[in-house]
Amino acid sequence: MPDVGIYVATVYGGALDVAEQIAPLFEAAGYGVEIHETPTLEKLVDPQPNLALFCISTTGRGDYPGNFTALSNALEQQRPSLEGLRYALIAMGDSSYEDSFCGAGRRLDELLTTLGGSRVGERLEVDASETPMADDAALPWAEQWLAAHS
Ligand SMILES: Cc1cc2nc3c(=O)[nH]c(=O)nc-3n(C[C@H](O)[C@H](O)[C@H](O)COP(=O)(O)O)c2cc1C
């Protein structure tokens, strides 16, 4: 059975809610699912899941949420090779923050690719100004992702 690790970066719980809404779709498609509320590098690479799905919101001015900094610091400082890592990414933000819109998700996407990871499918960006209930965008995206890639 393929497995998906869902790595959550959240301040107020919205990204965790998205992860919990999406998990049953992956389970129905035959994946084993584990949600990581306190992601670490070990949980990403040891063992590496068949798919790493990041549900990541932005705080501050383009910053990573605090629960995610153990992983983001490890990636930025240790620069591990992520060759072979397949990942998908849902970035949550608010366009009222203008040039830091979805800044953490965009930065993470670039970092994962730089370290050798391969993004599968397009990054979803959820704008809280347009889509207050993030599930309204995330669930259709997940259904389309599964139809195209599993
Ligand atoms: C203090 C604060 C700072 C924020 N900074 C940004 C930002 O720089 N860029 C952005 O796109 N969204 C920003 N947001 C919006 C959040 O990313 C957005 O509301 C998201 O849906 C929150 O998800 P969460 O419930 O998982 O924390 C900020 C929100 C707050 C409250």
From TrEMBL:
GO molecular function terms attached to this record: flavin adenine dinucleotide binding; FMN binding; oxidoreductase activity
Taxonomic source organism: Kushneria konosiri
Signal peptide: none
Protein name: Nitric oxide synthase
SUPFAM superfamilies: Flavoproteins
Keywords: Electron transport, Flavoprotein, FMN, Transport
Cited Pfam families: Flavodoxin_1
Cellular component GO terms, alphabetical: cytosol
Cofactor(s) required, per the database record: FMN
InterPro entries: Flavdoxin-like, Flavodoxin/NO_synth, Flavoprotein-like_sf
Flavodoxin-like domain mapped to chain residues: 4-146
